[in-house]
Amino acid sequence: MEELEHTCPHPRTTLTEPAIFARETSCDCRAPHEKLTIAQARRGTPVDRPVRVYADGIFDLFHSGHARALMQAKNLFPNTYLIVGVCSDELTHKYKGFTVMTEQERYEALRHCRYVDEVLRDAPWTLTPEFLEKHKIDFVAHDDIPYSSAGSEDVYKHIKEAGMFVPTQRTEGISTSDLITRIVRDYDVYARRNLQRGYTAKELNVSYINEKKYRLQNQVDRMKEKVRTVEEKSKHFVYRVEEKSHDLIQKWEEKSREFIGNFLELFGPDGTWKQVFQERSGRMLSYALSPRESPCNSPPRELSPLRSPSPPSPPARWHNARPSPPTSPKGASASMSSMSEGDEDEK
Fold this sequence. Notes:
nucleotidyltransferase; elongated; transferase; 347 residues; choline-phosphate cytidylyltransferase; phospholipid metabolism; 48% helix
């Protein structure tokens, strides 16, 4: 079953597994590999096999620009089988320069791209006719900018002359060189970050002095962050105090207006207190002008013991009546003398 799948490979219909690694050739069909034109491939012919498209590159720091180029290569024709060649570290370091990712990491990155059907490891730098025939490649996809390398002004020149080249478009604003430039430009930031995450100075190739400097800068940054946090909390607290103060002032103004209104209503020119005062003043004035008689059951006024009024003389017809007892010694003597005089008169 496995041999049959490699004999007549078809585009993957599922994305649950990564792309396969290429063997010597993944197209072992015994039928002759007929050369196709671009017009024929775009019509979807031949119907018995997909169009085999080859795209190669370094694919260091695999990014969206790489993925978009492979997406374009995959969708060049209605039925496309995309083979991606990845150059080894040795060949890349020789002709282009040092890479960030190792070749194994770059192989695995390509295997997990959804547009790739097959990954060809240790791909050649220049595509020879023998290589194209060996892997039954119909077309080569790459951007149309001349790629000068290995002593040639354009390594795809002979592919273009053979009518087997199909251009793709580059994605502006993203490239491996741009990413490396960002890292080099912000080297101190990334070195400090990795030191903070537990990497050693030896792993980062950082000198002893720079290590101490980066660690001090990290401490300063942490202190700044704490200060900013405190400032934010203080601003929030001040805002809340201002908000509460505004509410209190507004309530105080409302209560003040209510108090002043009540005061004016009670003590104002036409207030309730003036009417009450006028009514009480009228009653007091009328009482002073015409006082009322004392009630009958009012207690008798006590007389002073020093000055007791003499009792009124009784009428003539009551002369025989017994006089009331005197209320004081002087009164008693006076009454005794009057009684003796009366007796003399009667005699």
